[in-house]
Each structure stands twice: as C-alpha cells, then as structure tokens.
Design goal:
The protein is α+β, with helices and mostly antiparallel strands. It contains six helices and five strands. Strands 1, 2, 3, 4 and 5 form a five-stranded antiparallel beta sheet that branches. Helix 2 packs antiparallel against helix 5 and helix 3 crosses helix 4. It is globular, with a radius of gyration of 16 Å. It starts with a helix and ends with a strand. The mean pLDDT is 97. Bound molecules: flavin mononucleotide (FMN). The site of flavin mononucleotide has 6 residues, from strand 4.
C-alpha cells in the first residue's frame, strides 16, 4: 500500500479475528518500528511479541491490575477482563526501557521515540492488511504486567497492540 493511502485509511480495529500476522510480516513491522526517529540513538523501544504462555500470564496480570484498581471486581468480571486480553490472535507490547545515564535525552523524549516507533509499526501492519488496536488502560501502568513484557517497574508500556484480521 502506498504511504499516503495507508496514513489516510488507517483506523483502529475494534474487532479482530484469525489469522494474526505471519512471522515474516511481524518482522517487517518490527523493522519499520526501528526506523523511528530516536534522539541520541538510545533505541529505547522494546517490542515484545507474546507467545501463548506469555499471553496467558499477561492476561492474568492485566486482570489482577484491574482488580487492584477496582477491589470490588467479582470472579465473573475478573474472567471478562482476562478474556479481553486474549481476543485478538496476536498481542505485542510496545515498551520503553528508559535510560537514565544520558542527561541530554530526557525520559519523555525516549517515550516519544517509542510512540513514533509504535505508529510506524501500526502503519506497517495496516499496509500489510492487518487490523490493529492500540490499548493501554490500568494494565499499562502495572508493575506485574510490565514484568511479563520484560520491563522494569520504572519503564513504560506505551502500547498494548492487539493485532489480527479485521472482523466485521
Ligand atoms: C496512548 C494511547 C492509548 C490508547 N488507549 C486505548 C485504550 O485503552 N482503549 C481503546 O479502546 N483505545 C485506545 N487508544 C486508541 C484510540 O482510542 C483511538 O485511536 C481513537 O479512538 C481514534 O480512533 P481511530 O484510531 O480509529 O482513528 C489509545 C490510543 C493512544 C494513542
């Protein structure tokens, strides 16, 4: 897909189904992400493509984060929160592993670089024919969820990317 056509036609995909992106297509999206502008070339982005086991742990941690935020959450609501994270065939977490050893590159600029990389990733996914939904919510700020994506508590989850084929 031509660049302007991709930019002008991208929208969030609320409903996703199989198939998710192939390994080859995921690699192209990750390569596109890595072309983002990045002050100081710190490469702060950490894109984690969750495998089946990590998806289960991620969903459990996300539902637990919701219960921490809403202590009244009952078992049914917990299960629904968990299931929400497992609806799309593919989950990718876009994290920012903050570097604090370079005072010239403030933390916010590192987060912005990851946001730019995330948009590259999304546009590449769209150009390759996939639907994407950028999500955050309380899960994105929870240390347990971050740990599943290989991030430290002081790092940031910039996006939880739900990917697949558009449904409906
Ligand atoms: C930082 C960020 C966080 C977002 N978090 C969520 C979210 O938690 N849930 C959600 O449904 N959409 C989320 N979105 C997607 C927006 O809701 C969506 O892009 C917006 O509604 C515009 O729709 P469009 O993408 O189809 O143009 C997020 C977008 C950004 C940039």
């Amino acid at each position: 897909m031509e660049l302007f056509a991709a930019i002008e036609s991208r929208t969030s995909a609320a409903r996703l189904t199989v198939p998710g992106p192939s390994a080859e297509h995921l690699e192209r999206m990750l390569q596109a992400a890595a072309r983002a502008p990045d002050h100081g070339r710190l490469r702060p982005w950490r894109f984690s493509v969750l495998d089946a086991d990590a998806r289960e742990r991620f969903a459990e941690a996300a539902a637990s984060a919701k219960r921490t935020a809403m202590p009244g959450l009952d078992a049914e609501q917990f299960a629904a929160e968990r299931a929400k994270q497992l609806r799309a065939p593919t989950l990718v977490v876009a994290g920012c592993a903050v570097r604090r050893d370079n005072p010239k590159i403030p933390e916010i600029e590192q987060v912005l670089a990851v946001a730019a990389a995330t948009q590259n990733f999304i546009l590449a996914a769209h150009a390759l024919g996939y639907g994407v939904m950028w999500k955050t919510g309380v899960a994105a700020y929870d240390p347990g969820v971050k740990a599943v994506a290989g991030l430290r508590p002081e790092d940031h989850i910039v996006a939880i990317l739900h990917l697949g084929t558009r449904a409906g």
